Amino acid sequence: MNDLEQLLAAREIVVTCGAGGVGKTTTAAALAALAATELGGRVLVLTVDPARRLADAMGVGGLGNEAVRVPNEAFAASGARPRGELWAAMLDTKQGWDDLVRRHAPDPATRDAILANPLYDTLTGRMVQSHDYVAMERLHELHASGEWDLIVVDTPPSRHAIDFLEAPGRMADFFTSRFLRILVAPSRHRLIGMASRPFYAIADKVLGAAFLRDIAEFFGLLESMYDGFVERARAVERVLSDERTAFVVVTTLSAVPVREAMFFVDALRERHLQLGAIVLNKVLPPGLLDVRQAALAARLAQDAPALASRVCSEEPMSDEASADDVEMVARVLAEVGDSFGRLRVVAQREAVQRAALEALGHPVVAVPQLDHDVVDLASLLVVGTALRG
Predict the structure, then answer these.
(1) How large a percentage of the chain has pLDDT more than 90?
(2) Is 72's pLDDT higher than 60?
C-alpha cells in the first residue's frame, strides 16, 4: 500500500479539493473506485460540484440526492472484480433544504408555513452559501447513518471549497446577525410593526405587494429553527476536524493551479484540518527530463533532411519516393524533435512546481497525462491504478 491507499483504508471521510479544471471530480471518483475495488467495504462518492460528470463516468444514469449503486456489470466490463460496493450520489440543493426544514422545524405548522412561503424556493436557492451549507448537512447525515465505510467528497473549485468548509459557521452567524433581527423585528414587536408601516407601504409600491412582509415572515420562521441549525453546524465542524476525516488537494503542475493548491494547503493548516495527500494530475512523462533523450530529439530535428533521405531510400519506398516525399518526411521528423524540445521545457517547469509542493512535507502522488479522456469506469480504474503508485 502506498500513502494514498493507506489513507483510504484508515479514514471514513476523504474530501477532495482544488481549482477548477484540474481533474478533481475524476480524482474523487477514481479514489472511490480504487477503494471499492482494492480495499472492500461500502464506498460512496458524493459530488457537490454543479458539473454533472460522475454519472456518465460510472454509467449509473442521472445522479440525485439518493445514493445509487454502480452495478457489478460496469466493473465486469472493465475487467475488475471489486471486493466491495461502489455507490454515487449528487447533492440536490432543493431536496436538501426541504429535508433540513422537516428535520429542524419545531412543529408541523412551522414546517408547512416555511415550505409554502412564496420566497422559500428563491431565497434558499440564491442565498449565499446555500449550496455549501446543504452539502455539509448532507455529508454529516450520510456519515452519521453508519451505512458507509468510506465517503469520498468532491467539492467545488478551491476558493468555493473554502466556503464549503466555512458554510456551517457562517450560516450559524447569520441566524444571530443584526440583519436578521432587523428583518424579523416588525413581525415580533407590535410597536415596531406600527412604526414601520409607512416604510412597508412605500416598499410595497416599489417591490410589490407584501414583499418585505413575506421576507420578515420567512426569516422569522427560519429563526425558529436556530437551535437545530447551530447544533448541526457545530457537529459538522467536529466531523471535519476529526481524525477520521482527511483532505486530498488535487492540482495540475501549471502555475495558477499550483498557487491555488498552496493556498488550500495553508487554509487547511490554519483550520487545523488534516491534509492526507497532494495529487498531481496530468503530469508529463519523466522521460522528457532525460538528458540523453533530449539530445537525441535535438539531433532528430537538426538532421531531419539527411535522415529523411535515408528513410525514403530504403524499401519499400525507394521505387516511388520523390523529392516531395523526402521533404514531407523531413518536416515530420523535424516536428517530432522540436515537439519533444517544447514539451521538455514544460516538463522542466513542472519539475520546479512539483519540488515546491513536495517541500511542503505531505505525501505527493502523480497521475500521468493520459492519451484518452476519462469517460467510463474502466478509465477511472486506470487513474486509480496511477494513484496507487
Answers:
(1) 38
(2) yes
Q: Are 316 and 334 in contact (CB under 8 A)?
A: no
Report the SS3 class of residue 157: strand
Please name which of 86, 57, 154, 25 lies closest in space to residue 374, comparing C-alpha atoms: 57
Q: What gap in Å lies between CA 243 and CA 239, rounded to an integer? A: 8
Residues 6+ apart with CB under 8 A from 306: none
Task: Give the type of residue at 150.
Answer: L
Task: Tell me how far apart the alpha carbons of residues 118 and 101 are, in angstroms, rounded to a whole number.
Answer: 15
On the 0-12 / 13-18 / 19+ scale of CB atoms within 10 A, 349 is: middle
Q: How would you label 258-275 residue by residue, b for 16+ Cβ within 10 Å and e otherwise?
A: bebbbebbebbeeeebbb
Helix, strand, coil percent content, the chain, rounded in steps of 5: 65, 15, 25
3-state secondary structure of 103: helix
Yes or no: say if 11 and 246 are a contact pair by the CB < 8 Å rule: yes
Long-range interactions of 210-214: CB distance < 8 A, separation 24+: 213/186, 213/187, 214/117, 214/118, 214/119
Burial of 382 from C-beta contacts in 10 A (0-12 / 13-18 / 19+):
middle
Q: What's the count of helices (H) and strands (E) in the chain, helices before strands?
A: 19, 8
C-alpha cell at 21: 479544471
Strand, helix or coil at 195?
Answer: helix
**Which range, of 193-207, 324-338, 367-381, averages the lowest pLDDT?**
193-207
Per-residue CA distances from 107 to 71, 102, 113, 220 (Å): 40, 9, 10, 14
Q: What DSSP string describes 316-385? A: TTTTT--HHHHHHHHHHHHHHHHHHHHHHHHHHHHHHHHHHHHTT-S-EEEEEPPSS---SHHHHHHHHH
| Residues making up the chain, counted from first to last | 389
Model pLDDT for residues 113-157, shown as the tens digit of each residue:
888 887 787 767 666 566 777 888 888 889 999 999 999 998 876
